[in-house]
Amino acid sequence: MESIKGEYTISTDNRKLDIAFIHNYLSTSYWAEQIPIATVTKAIDGSLCFGVYHGAKQTVPAVRQVGFARMVTDKATFAYLADVFIDEAHRGLGLSKWLVAAIMAHPDLQGLRRIMLATRDAHGLYAQFGFTPLINPERWMQIHDPDIYKR
Fold first, then answer.
1. What is the DSSP string of 79-120?
2. Which range of residues forms the domain containing residue 8?
3. Ordered per-residue pLDDT tens for the chain, 151 residues
4. CB atoms within 10 A of CB 38
């Protein structure tokens, strides 16, 4: 899948992903601090990924990645949206909203029973796409090891 908006492109082609760029961002994020690059690569390999790119092959500088998101999914009943980000230099242009819209419209993500995510501060963005707080949170359980990448 590929979508173009002005100077920006969203693509699901994993061959275009800049793993070093993604790792650099995630390893300094609040949710994946110090994540090893091998773990990022493995997560990408097991996910439906969306890269956001700026520029065109004919321009200088050439195309470079400026955003990312991935869906962990069985493509039948469940998906988990993870690692969503836009580089700070490209924020305020509606790219996050466009990215989430592209993800939610992807053919492999239609008809799912449940799509989940966790966020510290982007509730307003995701609410625009139908995400709500958990109903009956007492039914949900987790194993959470926030320091796993620091050991």
1. EEEEEEEE-GGGTTSSHHHHHHHHHHH-GGGTT-SEEEE--S
2. 2-150
3. 999 999 999 999 999 999 999 999 999 999 999 999 999 999 999 999 999 999 865 555 568 999 999 999 999 999 999 999 999 999 999 999 999 999 999 999 999 999 999 999 999 999 999 999 999 999 999 999 999 998 8
4. 9
Among residues 8, 27, 6, the alpha carbon closest in space to that of 99 is found at 8
Q: How far is CA 68 from CA 20, 73, 102, 135, in A?
A: 12, 16, 12, 28
Predicted TM-score (pTM) of this structure: 0.93
Instruction: Give the Cα separation of 86 and 91 in Å (integer).
Output: 6
In CATH, what number is assigned to the domain containing residue 67? 3.40.630.30
User: Cα angle at 15 between 98 and 111, to 5 degrees?
Assistant: 50
Domain count, the chain: 1
CA 71 from chain centre, in angstroms, equals 7
Provide the pairing of β-strand 2-5 with 8-11.
antiparallel
Do the Cβ atoms of 80 and 73 come closer than 8 Å?
A: yes
